[in-house]
Amino acid sequence: MKLDIVIVGAGGVGSALAPMLGRYCQYLPPVFDEIVVTVADGDNYEEGNAPRQLFGRFGNKAEVTTEALLEEFPRVRFVPFPEYVTPDNVDMLIGEGAIVFSAVDNHTTRKLLDKHVGTLQDATLVNGGNDYTDGNVQVYARRGGRDTTLSLCQVHEETANPADKSPHEMGCEERARASAPQLFFANQTVATLMSWVFYLLTTDDTFARRPSIGEFYFDMVAGRVNPIARNASAEEKE
């Protein structure tokens, strides 16, 4: 059985998530005989990223991340995609059966991923984000050409009608200005919750067919994590 995993964004959340998935996949049962993890990001690691992102050297985030993990987890084939995801390349990156982890910091890219997954027969999109000490993780699943959970755009207006830009539409200075403050611990929390979803997808057939959790909300200050079902009704299935 092949696992086709795509991590979009190797910043604060993505750089924390990739080694978690790598370690877990390295020791999965032999039934998973081909495990591919593609990491996509057009940005570079720089000195200013160090307080909140995990990396061993400066350079393109996708290349640096996959380079390190290939050595540590040889069973997993890590593939760099050193570009921002755009309408022109999204179909090259994400195909049928993919489990996509969206670790980006803009709603325009989230909408692009959401809409693309909505064109596939079978795929899962796990989106994570945070506002310094709180955040959420959303699950959008397609099975047999139908939605089994609500899409990101169906639930969140800010994703359906984004007011921001994708990084491929901005210059370096504009991208730097658009970057919001991040807390390392919150990034780790998002990555951990995304890993929870991945664990359920690979161990629980019922959850894999129709995820019972459509969204997690967490608040570090309040000390809580709340799961919410986002099942698509018959009327909302396509």
TrEMBL record:
Coiled coil: none annotated. InterPro entries: ThiF_NAD_FAD-bd (IPR000594), Ubiquitin-activating_enz (IPR035985). It holds the Pfam family ThiF. It comes from the Bacteria. One of its GO terms (molecular function) is ubiquitin-like modifier activating enzyme activity. Residues 3-158 form the THIF-type NAD/FAD binding fold domain. This is THIF-type NAD/FAD binding fold domain-containing protein.
